[in-house]
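Predict the holo structure. Ligand: zinc ion.
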Amino acid sequence: MNKPGIVFDTRYLDHRITQPTRENPDRLRSLFGAVKQQFNNRLETVQPREARLEDIEQIHSNFYLNQIREHAIKGDPFSYDKDTYLMELSLATAQLAAGGCLELADQIMGGSLEQGFALIRPPGHHAEPGRGMGFCILNNIAITAQYLQDHFQLDRILVIDFDVHHGNGTQEAFYDSDKVLFISIHQNNIFPFSGDIAEIGNAEGLGYNINIPVHSHFGDQEYTFLLGKLLQSVAEQYLPEIILVSAGYDGHREDSISSTFLSTHSFHTITTLLRQCARDICDDRLLFILEGGYNPVSLEKSVLATIDSLLQPHGSRVGILHSERADALFTNHPLHAFWTL
Ligand SMILES: [Zn+2]
C-alpha cells in the first residue's frame, strides 16, 4: 500500500482579516503540528502548487475572477457577505488551495498515490461559478472534478460532501452533467438554505444530484446508515473512476455551527466506508478535500481520525445498524427508484 499523500503548507494561513471570524488560520495552525507529530513518516507530504487561471476558469466566470484579482491588487479588504472576505493574499491562498487538490489528483491519477488529503483553506464548496460565499472563494473540489475530466478524460466522478452545510457551489457547477455525480448529506434548514431533495439535476444531469438533508441531532448511526446505503446502491451502479470528498467536520457534536451530533469516531467510520468503496470500485482512488470545521479542537481530532483510518490495513469492515428515521429519507426521495435507494 502506498502512503497516503497529505498537502499542507503554512501559506494556507495567509488568508486572514483582523476581525474575528470562524474561518481563520487558527483552524489549521495546530492541526499541521498534530498531523506531523502523530503520523509524520507514515504520510507522503505533497507540495501544493498554485492552480492556473485556465483551470479555474473552467468553473468560475471571468467577471468573478476579475473582481477577486482587483481586490488582491488593490489590497483593500472586501466582503462578499458577512463571512466571505478578500484581502491582498486571498487570491494567492485560494489558488494554492485549489492547486493543492490538483497536485494530489495528478499523483493519484499517475499512480504514485492512491489516496490523498488536502488540508487546505479557504474552503470551497459554497463558492458558486459567479460569486464567493460562506467562507469560500474558489470551489476547490469543483475545479478538481473539472480538471480530471479535461486532463484525464474521466467521465464518472463521484463527489461525496459530508460537510454539515449543503455544497451549493459544487451542485451548481455540475447540475446539468452526468459526469459528476454529486451527493450531499447536510443538515436541513441551515446556511446556505439550499439542498432540498427536489434538486435532482437537470438535462443530462437529471438524477445525478442527490441531496440528503438530515434533521438536527442525527448522529453516528444515521450517518453510517445513510452513507453505507448510498455507496452500496448509487456508487455500485454509477461505477465512479475516482471518489472526491468534500470533508467538512462541522457536523461534529462539539462544533457550535450545527446541531448534528457526530462523534470523532464517526469520521473514522465514514472514511473506512469510503475506502472500501474506492477499493471495490475505483482502484483505491480517493481524494479528501478539507471544507468546514470551526471548533479547532474537534476539527483536529476528526482529521486525525480520518487519517488514522486511511492508514489502517485494508479489509476492516464497518457494521451498519439500521436506522428507521434515516431510511425514511430514502423512501421519500424523488430518486428512490432511479437509484434503487
Ligand atoms: Zn460547513
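The mean pLDDT is 95. Residues 163-165, 248, 250, 291-292 surround zinc ion (CB under 6 Å).
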